Amino acid sequence: MGDPIIQIRHLGKEFRTVNGPVRALQDINLDVNEGEIFGIIGLSGAGKSTLVRCINYLEVPTEGDVLFEGKSLAGMTPAQRRKTRQSMGMIFQQFNLLAQRNVIQNVCFPLELARVPKNEARTRALELLRTVGLEDREKAYPAQLSGGQKQRVAIARALATNPKVILCDEATSALDPNTTKQILALLKEINRTMGVTVIVITHEMPVIEAICDRVAIIGESRIAEVGTVSEIFAGPKTKIGRQLILGDAIDQVRFGRSKRIRIIFDGRESTEPIISNLVLSCRVPVNIMYAATRDINGKAMGQMIIQLPEDENEARRVVHYLDSIQIPYEEVGENDI
Amino acid sequence: MTFDAATLDMLKTGIWETFYMTALSSLFAYIIGLPLGVILVVTDDGGIYPIPWLQKILGVVINLLRSVPFLILLFIVLPLSKIMIGTRIGSPAMIIPLTIAAAPYVARVVESSFRELDAGVIEAAQSMGASTWQIIWKVFLTEARPSLFLGAALAVTTILSYSAMAGFTGGGGLGAIAINYGYYRYKPFLMWVSVVLLVLMVQILQEAWTRLSKKGDKRIR
Hints:
The structure holds two protein chains of two kinds.
Chain A: E1 4-17, E2 20-33, E3 37-41, H1 48-55, E4 63-68, E5 71-72, H2 78-85, E6 88-92, H3 103-113, H4 118-131, H5 147-159, E7 165-169, H6 177-194, E8 197-202, H7 205-211, E9 214-219, E10 222-228, H8 229-234, H9 239-245, H10 247-252, E11 260-265, H11 274-282, E12 287-296, E13 299-307, H12 312-324, E14 329-332
Chain B: H1 5-42, H2 52-67, H3 70-85, H4 91-115, H5 119-127, H6 132-143, H7 145-163, H8 174-184, H9 188-216
Helix pairs in contact in B: 1-4, 1-7, 1-8, 2-4, 3-4, 4-7, 7-9, 8-9
């Protein structure tokens, strides 16, 4: 992983609307390193789509700047910005293919815009269609393709101009879970084999867990926290972070009134029966309310929410025990979820 | 009732005159109206090259021209025909008022075709570094093609029906025959024959453009 390829500096965006100004982004600072897969996660309306559009200046920020390979996009002329955009591919939730062009013509489109000779463009497009596994559909029109195939064409199209960065705006949100997995695997493969930096915008934690190296959590127009995916997963520092990580636990569990603790297993203790030992040595019952294991960058990360006994002394014993065996845990407040 | 050779000749000339008035006026109306339609969409607030004041002024001018009844416009503009092509009567003289009446209409028809375009596709083109011209040529005109053809059917048939009013000011074509024989000389049969011929021409034109639109549309499978 290299130097920062994209640096976002004090970036802000305010939209003028009939109901007065609306703040979409506030003082965003982020560095995305060359060669990494960087995730930006947030709930709907958090400003993540605006943020990704500010990175290639499809939206012009009202404050701050974006540096691409050290060069300020704010200081560029429109022509220079268009040139820079050829180094930043983008894929979209709704694929946004040209409906009147067939697959190969769609992939050739950015090359046509960059005035690459036809033959050269065709050769490059065919090569990319092989990469995304659609070499046999070059003459098909978008209307004849499935959602996953359309996104593959869009990925090939985004790669045509040999970009250094690919921006993915909710690229898998319109796809079924199986197709989502395939598209994510393809993005990861492209990242590993071509060294393309990938920026993933999503509202789904599983997408982040599946492919991202680092993640920024965005909430209420600001960056709430940034870190490696395992760091954030093991110890989210903000309410929005906990909400996103515990997301699927919320619907499934009704919590009682006494103290709750989230235990994080990072794979080291897989041979040790932690909960059984805890119960045996503390001699108190704990209530398991939620448990799940997720694969984060190939490492099994487990999380479990247990409810402690109402009795304060007994609860303290459990906490002491967890401290003594040095297992990461955190208290989960009622307001966090 | 049968036609004598003179009547038949007159009807043939009428069909030809209606055809070329419509064809040439449509051509000129598109030469003026298509760029205007592009400007209306591109320069709009939130368009790909916003110049809101220009868009507003253009919109007002187009609305003004469109609100003048064609028959009135015909009388106002015919002196211009006299200056430009040397005569104010006959079918060629009609082409100028027809073009002036149709161009703003064409601009609106074209505008609505472009507004139907998927904003995401335009955004995708921008994300690839497309310039404003490239988006107009390679996205607007190609992606909106089926809709532009349907719009052309609308515009051309409207121009054809306008051309039928030429009879009131000394123009030619089937409309003139219908007016001169049916209205002024009370020969309803000849009037109905002209009207039926006009209806047939509209049918043929509409069908042709619709087919062209469907044939070129890659979204239908």
